[in-house]
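Record 1 of the preview.
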Amino acid sequence: MRCRPADDGLKWWAEGISTLTEPPPTDRDHDGINDDRDEFPDDPHNTPRRFIRLTCQVGDDTRGFDIEAVPDKGADFTAIWAAKATSCDSDTVAPDSALEQKAHKASGYEEPDIGTLYSICGQVDPDDVYVDAGFAPSREQIAEISGALTLCATHPQAKKWRQAVKRGQADAKLEADGRLFPDGTYLVRKEIKPGTYVTTDVKDCYWERQNRSGEIIDNNFVPSARRVQVTIRSSDYGFMSERCGQWRPA
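->
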């Protein structure tokens, strides 16, 4: 009777143990690449990770943050918001994902660069004009804020941004209706509406109401005042002002 050599027996035993103890290869994302060789084991599309570099002012220090831009999910600003950066700068960032392209469209930017939006999203500045209680943004600023809100909807100051957008939209409607206007010369009823208007914090403000012949119906010069009010009649032909700022309905 022939016996298995001792060495062969040991080898057979070791191979048996190895077969029993080694787990089978895994492929969590089912992309045909085993996890031990897959650079992106949880992403079946194997999309490379993308980071946006922001250089921010944190207190008296300048710090760099790498913000990961996850396609269609947005960037994670958690770390930078926790640091309370008051200002940030970014290199050029071309809109890549669908979310970034949507933010770019909302911003109204002509150039294909949303680096400014990433900078706005990164900073949490209590003195930012966009969070001022009385600030009403222009059309361009409304678009920029809307772009930032698309990119970082959960920003710590998002609520104040949305309030600013509402004020800006309300002012845009007043302007379109001829009821919000800066210094200048206007035709009443054609360019501006009759009504009572006010302006605030003026210095050397001059205004006058005019008839069809250009003669002065009423006028006033205000060296300095916190508030100036004027009523433009429907019978007035023109109205002009200098150094008075912006007139809005009283």
